[in-house]
Amino acid sequence: MINLSSAGHRYSNVDLEDPNFEHTAYEPFLAYGRSKTANILFAVAFDERYRRRGVRAAAVHPGGIQTELARYTDPGRIEKLVAQINQQLAAEGKGPFQWKTIPQGAATSVWAAVAAPAAEIGGRYCENCHVGKVVPDDFTITAASEGVRAYAMDRATAQALWKKSEEMVGESF
Fold it and tell me: Of 6, 36, 109, 151, which residue is the catalytic one?
Protein backbone atom coordinates (compact mmCIF):
# COMPACT_ATOMS: atom_id res chain seq x y z
CA MET A 1 0.00 0.00 0.00
CA ILE A 2 1.40 3.38 -0.99
CA ASN A 3 0.33 6.30 1.18
CA LEU A 4 0.89 9.77 -0.25
CA SER A 5 2.63 12.12 2.15
CA SER A 6 4.90 15.12 1.70
CA ALA A 7 8.04 16.85 2.87
CA GLY A 8 5.43 19.12 4.46
CA HIS A 9 5.48 16.67 7.37
CA ARG A 10 8.46 18.72 8.56
CA TYR A 11 6.12 21.54 9.60
CA SER A 12 4.75 19.58 12.54
CA ASN A 13 4.37 16.33 14.40
CA VAL A 14 0.84 15.05 15.01
CA ASP A 15 -1.11 16.28 18.02
CA LEU A 16 -3.17 13.36 19.28
CA GLU A 17 -4.57 15.46 22.12
CA ASP A 18 -6.04 18.01 19.68
CA PRO A 19 -6.29 16.41 16.22
CA ASN A 20 -9.15 18.68 15.09
CA PHE A 21 -7.74 22.02 16.29
CA GLU A 22 -10.42 22.37 18.93
CA HIS A 23 -7.94 23.88 21.44
CA THR A 24 -5.21 25.10 19.12
CA ALA A 25 -5.45 28.05 16.77
CA TYR A 26 -5.82 26.75 13.23
CA GLU A 27 -2.90 27.49 10.90
CA PRO A 28 -2.98 25.93 7.41
CA PHE A 29 0.69 24.95 7.15
CA LEU A 30 0.63 23.47 10.65
CA ALA A 31 -2.50 21.46 9.79
CA TYR A 32 -0.90 20.31 6.53
CA GLY A 33 2.24 19.24 8.39
CA ARG A 34 0.23 17.29 10.96
CA SER A 35 -1.77 15.53 8.26
CA LYS A 36 1.32 14.55 6.27
CA THR A 37 3.07 13.29 9.40
CA ALA A 38 -0.08 11.27 10.16
CA ASN A 39 0.13 9.73 6.66
CA ILE A 40 3.69 8.57 7.33
CA LEU A 41 2.80 7.25 10.78
CA PHE A 42 -0.18 5.42 9.31
CA ALA A 43 2.13 3.64 6.85
CA VAL A 44 4.47 2.71 9.73
CA ALA A 45 1.59 1.28 11.78
CA PHE A 46 -0.08 -0.46 8.83
CA ASP A 47 3.17 -2.07 7.74
CA GLU A 48 3.84 -3.34 11.24
CA ARG A 49 0.33 -4.81 11.51
CA TYR A 50 0.11 -6.46 8.10
CA ARG A 51 3.64 -7.38 6.96
CA ARG A 52 3.20 -10.92 8.37
CA ARG A 53 0.34 -11.32 5.90
CA GLY A 54 2.58 -10.19 3.03
CA VAL A 55 1.06 -6.71 2.77
CA ARG A 56 3.53 -3.83 3.06
CA ALA A 57 3.00 -0.09 3.30
CA ALA A 58 5.17 2.94 2.59
CA ALA A 59 4.71 6.70 2.62
CA VAL A 60 5.77 8.66 -0.47
CA HIS A 61 6.69 12.30 -1.06
CA PRO A 62 6.02 13.10 -4.73
CA GLY A 63 8.01 16.34 -4.72
CA GLY A 64 6.97 19.89 -5.48
CA ILE A 65 4.19 19.80 -8.05
CA GLN A 66 1.88 22.66 -8.99
CA THR A 67 -1.53 21.24 -8.16
CA GLU A 68 -4.83 22.56 -6.88
CA LEU A 69 -3.55 22.12 -3.33
CA ALA A 70 -2.41 25.74 -3.25
CA ARG A 71 -5.60 27.17 -4.73
CA TYR A 72 -6.51 28.85 -1.42
CA THR A 73 -2.98 29.93 -0.59
CA ASP A 74 -1.88 33.48 -1.20
CA PRO A 75 0.35 33.33 -4.32
CA GLY A 76 2.79 35.66 -2.57
CA ARG A 77 3.30 33.05 0.15
CA ILE A 78 4.22 30.41 -2.45
CA GLU A 79 6.56 32.83 -4.23
CA LYS A 80 8.22 33.67 -0.90
CA LEU A 81 8.66 29.96 -0.13
CA VAL A 82 10.21 29.29 -3.55
CA ALA A 83 12.54 32.28 -3.09
CA GLN A 84 13.60 30.89 0.29
CA ILE A 85 14.22 27.45 -1.25
CA ASN A 86 16.28 29.06 -4.02
CA GLN A 87 18.41 30.92 -1.46
CA GLN A 88 19.06 27.65 0.35
CA LEU A 89 19.91 25.87 -2.89
CA ALA A 90 22.26 28.65 -3.95
CA ALA A 91 24.01 28.45 -0.57
CA GLU A 92 24.51 24.73 -1.21
CA GLY A 93 25.92 25.47 -4.69
CA LYS A 94 22.87 24.00 -6.42
CA GLY A 95 20.64 25.30 -9.20
CA PRO A 96 17.22 26.85 -8.63
CA PHE A 97 14.13 24.92 -7.59
CA GLN A 98 12.03 23.53 -10.42
CA TRP A 99 8.50 22.25 -10.07
CA LYS A 100 8.07 18.62 -11.01
CA THR A 101 5.71 17.61 -13.77
CA ILE A 102 2.86 15.30 -12.83
CA PRO A 103 4.68 12.26 -14.35
CA GLN A 104 7.85 13.19 -12.44
CA GLY A 105 5.80 13.51 -9.27
CA ALA A 106 4.21 10.12 -9.85
CA ALA A 107 7.59 8.43 -10.36
CA THR A 108 8.29 7.70 -6.70
CA SER A 109 4.79 6.29 -6.14
CA VAL A 110 5.19 4.03 -9.17
CA TRP A 111 8.71 3.03 -8.09
CA ALA A 112 7.52 2.18 -4.57
CA ALA A 113 4.45 0.27 -5.77
CA VAL A 114 6.04 -1.66 -8.63
CA ALA A 115 9.84 -1.67 -8.67
CA ALA A 116 11.20 -1.26 -5.14
CA PRO A 117 11.68 -4.36 -3.00
CA ALA A 118 8.84 -4.47 -0.44
CA ALA A 119 11.27 -5.36 2.34
CA GLU A 120 13.31 -2.24 1.52
CA ILE A 121 10.44 0.25 1.59
CA GLY A 122 8.01 -1.35 4.05
CA GLY A 123 7.20 1.05 6.88
CA ARG A 124 9.42 3.74 5.40
CA TYR A 125 9.26 7.19 3.81
CA CYS A 126 10.33 7.41 0.17
CA GLU A 127 11.32 10.39 -1.94
CA ASN A 128 12.96 10.78 -5.35
CA CYS A 129 12.79 7.00 -5.96
CA HIS A 130 14.69 6.00 -2.83
CA VAL A 131 14.10 5.51 0.88
CA GLY A 132 14.50 8.79 2.72
CA LYS A 133 17.10 9.09 5.44
CA VAL A 134 15.77 9.57 8.97
CA VAL A 135 17.03 12.83 10.45
CA PRO A 136 16.79 13.94 14.09
CA ASP A 137 13.91 16.25 14.95
CA ASP A 138 16.33 19.03 15.88
CA PHE A 139 18.36 18.64 12.67
CA THR A 140 18.11 21.74 10.52
CA ILE A 141 16.43 20.68 7.31
CA THR A 142 16.12 23.27 4.62
CA ALA A 143 13.16 23.28 2.29
CA ALA A 144 15.50 21.95 -0.39
CA SER A 145 16.79 19.07 1.75
CA GLU A 146 15.75 15.47 1.76
CA GLY A 147 14.98 13.34 4.77
CA VAL A 148 12.19 12.36 7.11
CA ARG A 149 11.86 13.67 10.65
CA ALA A 150 12.41 11.02 13.32
CA TYR A 151 9.03 11.82 14.91
CA ALA A 152 7.30 10.72 11.69
CA MET A 153 8.87 7.26 11.98
CA ASP A 154 8.24 6.72 15.70
CA ARG A 155 6.59 3.32 16.18
CA ALA A 156 4.97 4.22 19.52
CA THR A 157 3.39 7.34 18.04
CA ALA A 158 2.30 5.33 15.00
CA GLN A 159 0.48 2.85 17.25
CA ALA A 160 -1.06 5.69 19.29
CA LEU A 161 -2.30 7.32 16.07
CA TRP A 162 -3.81 4.00 14.95
CA LYS A 163 -5.63 3.69 18.29
CA LYS A 164 -6.81 7.32 18.16
CA SER A 165 -8.06 6.81 14.60
CA GLU A 166 -10.04 3.76 15.69
CA GLU A 167 -11.56 5.77 18.56
CA MET A 168 -12.48 8.62 16.23
CA VAL A 169 -14.25 6.43 13.67
CA GLY A 170 -15.73 4.02 16.20
CA GLU A 171 -14.23 0.93 14.54
CA SER A 172 -11.46 -1.50 15.32
CA PHE A 173 -9.17 -2.65 12.54
Answer: 36
